[in-house]
Structures are given as C-alpha cells and as structure tokens.
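Practice problem 4.
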C-alpha cells in the first residue's frame, strides 16, 4: 500500500495499518473517509473528496482495475463553525508549516496549529511588515522569504510550465508567490503547507462581494472554481515535493459555512464576518479584524512581474510577456 497524505474517519486520524485493516472490508470502506490523500493498493486507487492530493483519477472516487467502484463522501457529525475549524486544523497540525500573511485566514490557522510559519514578500512589501508584526504579537516562529527580481523571473518561468493557465497574469502571479513558500518548506524537509485558501470563497472575503447584486450566487460560483485553483496550487507545490493542506476546505468547515446565509457572511460592510467572530476567540483582535491585500499584491510579487514585463518590452501587457515566455521556453 502506498499512501500519500493522510486519512481520517469522523475526526480520528487513521494510521497506515488502520487503513490497511479497513480495506479488508473492500475498497468501498473508504467512502466515509475524509482527509487529503492519494492511496494506491494493488490495482486500486483512491483520491480524497475535494481532490487536494493530485492524482490520475477524479476527486472523491475509488477506482479498481481501471473502473470506478466507489465514491468518497465523508459525512462526519455536524458541528458549529468554530468546532469545525478547530477540528480541521488539529487534524492537519502534526507536521508541516503555515503559509502566513498575517490576515485572519492564515492567522487563525497559524494560531491554532502553532507550527512554523513562512511569509513571502519582497523587501519593503506590505505582507512582510504586517506578518512580522502579527507573528510577534502571536508568538509565532516566522521565516520571511524575500526573493530578488532575478529569483522571481526564474520562478515565473518554472511555474508557467506547470500551471493550467500560464498566460493569465493573476494565475501566474499567485503561482509565483506560492512557489517561494513551497520552496522554503521543501528545503526544511516539510511536505505539508497549511494555507488559508477557500476562506474568501466560503465566507465572502473579496471586495466585490460588498456590492454584489446576488451574493449567494456569486459565492456559490466562486466556491465551485476552487477545484481549478487547487490544480494550480498543487502543481506549484509539487515542484518542491510538497502539497497545500487546506483546513477551510474540510467537509466540516464547508458544511458549517454554507449553512450560514450569504447576508450573514458579508454583514454591515464587514467581509468574512462569521470567520472573524470565531477568530476573535483564538487570536488577537487586531489580526482577526485585519483587512489585507491578495497575496500577489501584498507580497510585491505582482509589482516585480510588471517590472519584468516592461524591461522585456511589454510596457502595457503582462499577458504578452507571459505568452512570450511560454512560447520561447516551452512552446505552449
């Protein structure tokens, strides 16, 4: 049996021996299991429900002999949002690092996990200053990774080769930022990177939600797009032998969050209101209430990519620059 990642059932982590014993009942026994995993045993392959762990079969399925034999749909007991988040982080906190920006999403994960943290940002960037202050306040072990322009150019060329939409400026800049967090984690011998992905889509974190004419529909559409984003993020992490672990996409958290009406998730001009309420009980209030920029902007990586585009003759089109890299280096 080859197990990449981890498996749990009703909040209890299973050892490889536990999983092997369970499979004695047949591969269908995995149907009720949660976690983040790709499992290969004999001629069977199983992949976690949300597809956190990359693999050759669709998320949430078990295939044996080349055909689907079961669907994975964990159904743990319902609980409060706070209990869901605490449980989700606890299940993932036995190993790894936290991708930390000092905002409420990563701040709550870091405060609960108490794992080493890493922040990516160029010298003088917003994320470096804020994350350093937040880490001191919370007593976290923080490493700051500050890439140079040449290092960003090299990382950009590498991520373009593996992400699904390489000429999209937003996709490429997010992937490049993640590249440096994953590189540091890999250098430290870690395979798991706890991240705050999914919180914006679940709890209403984007500024555009404040004026959305149909917030419920927009939240639903953005949540559905997380699978595509996950392919991008995991492809970048895999370059360094790591993967992104996402507590906010735990089935308990998703269920609890989606039970909250959309109007309560963005409330009184406050985005991610339910998450902030939970966070205030676990981390300093100024971090629980902090507003921050998206990672590619707060880190300064986007600004460097724009500068690289201008330097290479693309004064108004980052996309043109990315297209040139894709064609010149990889023929895509």
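Answer key:
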């Amino acid at each position: 049996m080859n197990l990449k990642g981890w498996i749990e059932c009703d909040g209890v982590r299973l050892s490889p021996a536990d999983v092997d014993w369970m499979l004695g009942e047949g591969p269908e026994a995995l149907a009720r299991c949660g976690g983040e995993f790709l499992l290969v045993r004999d001629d069977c392959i199983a992949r976690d429900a949300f597809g956190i762990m990359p693999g050759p079969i669709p998320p949430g399925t078990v295939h044996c002999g080349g055909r689907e034999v079961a669907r994975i749909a964990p159904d743990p007991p319902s609980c409060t949002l706070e209990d869901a988040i605490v449980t989700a982080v606890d299940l993932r906190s036995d190993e790894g690092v936290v991708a930390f920006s000092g905002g409420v999403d990563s701040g709550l994960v870091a405060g609960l996990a108490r794992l080493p943290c890493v922040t990516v940002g160029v010298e003088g960037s917003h994320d470096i200053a804020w994350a350093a202050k937040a880490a001191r306040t919370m007593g976290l072990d923080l490493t700051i990774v500050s890439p140079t322009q040449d290092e960003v150019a090299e990382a950009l060329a590498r991520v373009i080769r593996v992400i699904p939409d390489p000429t999209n400026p937003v996709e490429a800049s997010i992937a490049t930022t993640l590249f440096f967090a994953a590189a540091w984690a890999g250098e430290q011998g870690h395979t798991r990177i706890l991240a705050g992905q999914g919180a914006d889509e679940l709890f209403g974190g984007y500024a555009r939600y404040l004026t959305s004419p149909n917030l419920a529909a927009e939240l639903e559409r953005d949540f559905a797009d997380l699978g595509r984003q996950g392919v991008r993020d995991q492809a970048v992490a895999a370059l360094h032998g790591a993967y992104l672990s996402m507590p906010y996409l735990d089935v308990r958290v998703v269920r609890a969050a989606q039970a909250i009406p959309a109007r309560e998730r963005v409330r009184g001009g406050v985005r991610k209101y339910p998450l902030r309420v939970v966070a205030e009980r676990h981390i300093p209030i100024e971090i629980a209430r902090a507003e921050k920029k998206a990672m590619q902007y707060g880190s300064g990586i986007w600004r460097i990519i724009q500068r690289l585009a201008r330097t290479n003759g693309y004064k108004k089109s980052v996309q043109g620059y990315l297209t040139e890299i894709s064609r010149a280096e990889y023929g895509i």
